[in-house]
Automatic annotation (TrEMBL):
This is histidine kinase. The chain crosses the membrane at residues 34-51. Its EC number is 2.7.13.3. It comes from the Bacteria. Gene3D superfamilies: Histidine kinase-like ATPase, C-terminal domain. It catalyses: ATP + protein L-histidine = ADP + protein N-phospho-L-histidine. Residues 230-442 form the Histidine kinase domain. It is an enzyme of class 2 (transferase). It comes from Ravibacter arvi.
Length: 442
């Protein structure tokens, strides 16, 4: 039954009830009491019918309200039974329920989609109630980054990571800051962003932590490669003709008869030749920084790799009385890497360690390998040498920088580039007069 027909029917019943009431009043005042015996029951029947229909409508509304309160949008109202008004009402309720159900399903799908998207994102995110401190949500990236499997209240973060807690509480909403924080994976450069928002449950703050270590390292590495490429190209183009000309002049002068004035010329030409050859060797050395671009990845047995290192340095270690300890929980441990490049990195680190422990009474170097959470390999080279001064820590990976008289300043820079190509990094922990630990984190 259509809504129009229901309205017409309802108006007709009201008009009929009104007409009967007027007729009853007329009969009463005219003394026609015999007609009232028929009219009054008819009025009562019509009034009872209207009241019954209204009560049934109210009951139906109450049932629908209860379903909405409990979000039971799967509930169905039987539209095939009942009077015309009730059928139409139930059909309307079913239509509303269907719309609510579709909206709820779409919201649930969107929620699941966004939640899964945030879970797999590299950005670490945590949200908490500003009034109670209760953590509303924390994604998997945040858990892994700070090794926090569960966090009920944001204040508990103060014990886990004091620096992060302090920076997060001091950060103004809508602003970004960059800082270094200690984590189980070592020092991390984080870009921190905070955003406040209001819901029916209260005021909340969402904090995102973006690990920018790799981005900064890759940007720096690319910048150094471009700079070195330009420098080596210009040096070689400029010095090569000078070196060639100096060698030619030196040969010509050596064939000339000896003379006092020619001796000074010979010495000068030889000096120019030697220095130009030295500059060419210098340029060739730093050109190696730009030659590492592709990896030959294959399963490499770590024990074999370490044994090669041990055999290479064994004569030197015995001669200098240095103890080299190789520590592995699983001798059969394998990992996909470019074994040749990683071996070169380890050779440089062991050479640095030998130099660092040479003045120690009981010089000691260790190489360890183990799988961390997520099957990520870490190789550590540790020594008990003189350590690295705190003011030099930020410079040791810069090309050309070295504290050794015979060093070229290439080893650590090249090692870092190789680790970045492996999708990892190289970290250092050092304390003066105590020792250093270099970690290759894959």
């Amino acid at each position: 039954m259509s809504l129009r027909r229901i309205r017409i029917g309802f108006l007709l019943v009201l008009l009929l009830l009104l007409a009967l009431t007027v007729l009853a009043c007329y009969c009463f005042f005219k003394g026609l009491y015999s007609y009232l015996i028929l009219i009054i029951p008819a009025i009562a029947v019509l009034a009872l019918r209207l009241a019954t229909v209204r009560m049934r409508v109210f009951r139906e509304l109450e049932d629908f309200h209860e379903a909405v309160m409990y979000r039971d949008f799967t509930r169905s109202f039987p539209a095939g039974s009942g009077d015309g008004e009730i059928k139409l009402l139930r059909k309307t309720f079913n239509g509303i329920n269907q719309v609510f159900h579709e909206v709820s399903s779409e919201r649930e799908i969107q929620y699941q989609y966004l939640q899964n998207l945030l879970e797999i994102a590299d950005t670490s995110i945590i949200s908490y109630n500003l009034d109670t401190g209760k953590v509303a949500w924390m994604n998997e990236s945040f858990r892994k980054l700070f090794a926090i499997p569960f966090l009920n209240n944001f204040e508990a973060l103060q014990k886990r990571s004091p620096d992060l807690y302090r920076k997060s509480t001091q950060l103004s909403p809508g602003t970004t800051t960059l800082f270094t924080v200690e984590s189980p994976r070592g020092p991390l450069k984080l870009q921190l962003y905070a955003r406040d928002f209001q819901t029916m449950e209260g005021r909340f703050r969402m904090i995102s932590c973006q690990n920018v270590n790799e981005t900064i390292d890759r940007t720096e590495s690319l910048a150094w490669q471009k700079l070195l490429s330009v420098l080596t190209h210009e040096i070689m183009n400029s010095i090569a003709p000078i070196s060639s000309l100096a060698s030619t002049l030196s040969g010509r002068i050596s064939q000339m008869p000896p003379a006092p004035q020619m001796e000074d010329i010979r010495v000068g030409v030889d000096t120019i030749r030697k220095r130009s050859e030295g500059l060419l060797r210098f340029a060739q050395t730093y050109r190696s920084l730009n030659q590492v671009s592709n990896l030959n990845l294959r399963k490499t047995t770590l024990s074999t790799l370490f044994e090669n290192i041990n055999q290479l340095f064994e004569p030197t270690l015995i001669q200098k009385g240095i103890e080299l300890d190789i520590i592995m929980k699983d001798p059969s441990l394998q990992y996909e890497m470019d074994g040749g490049l990683i071996e070169q990195v380890l050779i440089n680190l062991v050479l640095n360690a030998i130099e660092a422990v040479k003045e120690k009474e009981a010089p000691y170097i260790s190489i360890t390998a183990q799988l961390m959470e997520g099957d990520r390999l870490q190789i550590r080279v540790t020594d008990n040498g003189k350590g690295i001064a705190a003011d030099l820590m930020d410079s040791i990976f810069v090309p050309f920088f070295t504290t050794r008289k015979t060093g070229s300043g290439v080893g650590l820079t090249l090692g870092k580039q190789i680790m970045l190509l492996h999708g990892g990094n190289i970290r250092v922990e050092s304390k003066e007069n105590t020792g250093s630990t270099f970690t290759l984190a894959f």
